[in-house]
Amino acid sequence: MMDTHAVQSRLTRIVNRVGAPLGPNIRLDPQYLMDLARRATGLEDFGDPGFETPLGILANSWDKEARLHLVGRVIVQRGLRHNLINRLNIEEYFRRNPQTALVPVPDPVVITGAPRSGTTLLQRLFAADPSNRTLRHWELADPVPKGFAPLVENDPRPAAAARHRALRRRILLSAAGRKAASDTHRAEASDAAECWPLLQNAFMSEISGSHGRVNSYIEWLWKQDLTPAYRYHRRQIQLLTAARPANRLVLKHPGHLGYIDNLLQVYPDARIIWL
């Protein structure tokens, strides 16, 4: 395993060392994060308030357990704020385009299995067939089109996502870190991607456990019924397919493996490919 310092950029190491006393100023309390999202968008409606409980548990776990350095706290704060911004934009999109709630979602093919078992390879094989609808990194990161219109000419989101990913890598990672990340799992903004960000917008995804020490949140999550999170997942799929209908929808995420019963409550005729 590569040493942490070898992965981090020199800038990241300097900021963490010099700015360590500033860490507590990077607040992770839910109401503050929600206020940040409101100010960023000018919107108020986050949708079903059921998200507030998992947000609170996750934010507290990040704050109290994860032992984040300064850059880590900034990344977590920006990530949670981004999920909240997504929620505000999603509700505004449905308000402006109420017909989206009637968009049919085809019974998906769902690829799952243990990590490193070939799920990405299989998903990209499906994605090579243009009749299959896979989800791309850029649309999962920012599911709502600019201007809240279903059809956007010259959509700026793919290019913006590519720039953001490249900048993030250059700032946070050393050359060795960038190579290690690419060797482990190459992923560009235009590639087919796992659909866990749709669950993360409900703050109910085990993916946080792979990003840091959030043990109390993960222990809580294992005891939950994720059916409401999958309903919100489906609501976002309706939005994503509003402008690009899907004849065959192909989803992929190893984390579905632990919640297949919940997934089938929302997608009862899904076809599961378990590697």
Give an overview of the whole structure:
- This protein has helices at 4-7, 10-18, 30-41, 52-64, 70-96, 119-127, 137-141, 157-172, 175-184, 196-200, 215-222, 227-242, 260-266; strands spanning 109-112, 132-133, 248-252, 271-274.
- It has a 4-stranded parallel beta sheet, with helices on one face.
- α3 (30-41) packs across α5, α4 packs antiparallel against α11 and α12 (227-242) packs across α13 (260-266).
- It is globular, with a radius of gyration of 19 Å.
- The protein has 275 residues and is mostly helical.
Summary, kept brief:
The protein has 275 residues and is mainly alpha-helical.
Shape: globular
Which structural class do you get from the secondary structure elements?
mainly alpha
Q: Characterize the main sheet.
A: 4 strands, parallel
Distance between the termini: 26 Å
Number of separate strands: 4
Specify the number of helices.
13
Low-confidence stretches: none
Helix content range: 40-55%
**Binned strand content:** 5-15%
Q: Spatial order of the strands in the main sheet?
A: 2-3-1-4
Order of helices and strands: HHHHHEHEHHHHHHEHE
Rg from Cα: 19 Å
The averaged pLDDT comes out at 91
Features:
globular; 51% helix; mainly alpha; 275 residues
Task: Tell me the layout of helices and strands.
Elements: H1 4-7, H2 10-18, H3 30-41, H4 52-64, H5 70-96, E1 109-112, H6 119-127, E2 132-133, H7 137-141, H8 157-172, H9 175-184, H10 196-200, H11 215-222, H12 227-242, E3 248-252, H13 260-266, E4 271-274
Parallel strand pairs: 1-3, 1-4, 2-3
Helix pairs in contact: 3-5, 4-11, 12-13
